[in-house]
Amino acid sequence: MKKIRLNTIFLIVIFLTIPFVTIFGNNPINIKFTIKHYNGTALNIKIGNETNKVIINNNGEGAIDLLLDKPTYGKLLIDNFNSYPLFLVPGTKLMISFLTNDKKVDSLKFTGDLSRENTFLQNPRNYSFGKVTINTKDDESKNSEMLDSLIKENQKKLEAQKLSETFKNLEKERIRYLSYKRLTMNYSINDANVTHFTSLLKSKMIENPDLMVIDEYLDFLISANKQLNYFAKGKISIEGDENRRNRVNQIVQNTKTPQILSYLVDDVLFPVVQNGEPADLIALYFKYVTDPKRIEALNKCLTAFERIKKGKPCPPFSFKDTNDHLVSLKELQGKYVYIDFWATWCGPCKGEIPHMQMLEDKFKGKNICFVSISVDKNSDIQAWKKMIAVNKMGGFQLHLGENWPWLKNFMPGNISIPRFLLLDKNGDFISSNMSRPSDEQTAVTINGLPGL
After folding, report:
1. In sequence order, what are the beta bridge partners of 318?
2. What is the per-residue pLDDT across 227-250, written as a single tens digit (0 to 9) for each?
3. Domain CATH code at residue 104
4. Whole domain around residue 80: which residue ranges?
5. Final residue of a domain: which of 92, 114, 136?
6. Known active-site residue 314
7. Between residues 53 and 136, which one has the greater pLDDT?
8. Which of residues 151, 175, 210 is at a domain's end?
9. Which of 21, 149, 209, 387 has its CA 20 to 30 A from that of 281?
10. Which one of 301, 314, 349, 369 is the catalytic residue?
11. Could you give the angle at which helices 194-203 and 215-232 cross, rounded to 10 degrees?
């Protein structure tokens, strides 16, 4: 009989006891979906800042292959209301099933290669964090010890689980940044202790591109830079483009790794520069963002913006109001038109409602009309009508009717609301990215329109 060397047996045993070998390469993960009571629910898988749409057929079944070069975390996004963490590994297969019940997701279940890891991630009671209280009278080392103790306690809970080592190694780091994220919730720091606190915060802002597969790591860096900017400006919250310029400057000062710098600047600037302005922020974006996919995405947005810049005609529309009567852009011509894109589920949108009502009252009887277009799904029309009635919302209240291609004229990168437009009396753009009702400049701009 042929002899097998002992060290060979030892290597085979090690190989077989590790569920996911750390030699990955560029391999796809195959994810299949089965949805009971499927009602047209939109599914996306987000990895970092890239969103991947999942196509679901009428039977509630679908699949997607995602090309990965290493294990990573992602998010399963179901409609606009539900987000679930995912652990994804190249070359594996994962099956996800659930049933939809109105806006709720029930009986979420994972099977396949990554079932235990993904089931584990859905339990919010896996770890205990409590409130991280920073004693600013202590030195930085004592506060760091307190945080490290909390991290080790939760990492110990993780070690007790029967999960793959690949997952555990990443999850230990995720635990670390779940803990650090609590640091960024401390905004009520006394002036005398700001220097101590910001020093502690900076000590945790380690730059490691390998950790960019962990959402919580990126979220911590985003929040930490935002908080440092807040304290650098004397604890004054500055809104709008000026705030974005300050935040980019803060990020540039605190970030040395180009890959991480690129991600953080993209997070701050893309939501506004995808609308084609302002020019100085677009220049900052191209100066610091190096991700080819994000640059390509912005270039597509800027090309699309050429169709909706000042002086270009607004794409025509005809949408139903709360009484199912069609209202078209053509019949509004002859008046200035201020358009608001909103939804019942959008908190910032609802925050603008009283300001919109004040604008309507201020310019009542003037040659301008106010149009609110809801982007709620067709299944939520009754909720839309109810909110209009409860809030006594005026102006033209219209529903998009899921005409997503028309909406993409204004938001080619991604749908981001609230969003406002201002049209002249011919239906041409004065601004395709108009200021909000709550912005004092909005009333000033409208008041200066000729022939109002």
Report:
1. 328
2. 888 888 776 665 678 888 989 998
3. 2.60.40
4. 24-114
5. 114
6. no
7. 53
8. 210
9. 209
10. 349
11. 150
